[in-house]
Amino acid sequence: MLTAIVLIDTAADQIPEVASRVTDLPGVSEVYSVTGKADLVAMVRVKEHDALSDVIADGISKVPGVLRTETLIAFRAYSHLDLEQAFALGLDD
Length: 93
Prior knowledge:
There is one protein chain. Helix content is 24%, strand content 32%. The chain is built from 3 helices and 4 strands; from the N terminus they run βαββαβα. It has helices at 15-23, 49-55, 83-88; strands at 2-10, 28-33, 40-46, 66-73. It has a 4-stranded antiparallel β-sheet. The chain starts with a strand and ends in a 5-residue tail after the last helix. It is of the alpha+beta class.
């Protein structure tokens, strides 16, 4: 699994709409509204390297309201958290 962190600059009045559209793209697992350098951060998870172009260049970058993107490719994950367990807390199947 390949993970990319995509920093997204948007038109200020379109942040919620852009976030919603980006969230709907295949390969995008989460979108966060953030403070700092970017307006949104999208987590992209795909199985093959070529799919990154499909999601980012042909998907995220073409969403109306997206002004600029910067992509960070993750090499390795370091975490003490079991993210699946954390997201499952309090949820009944």
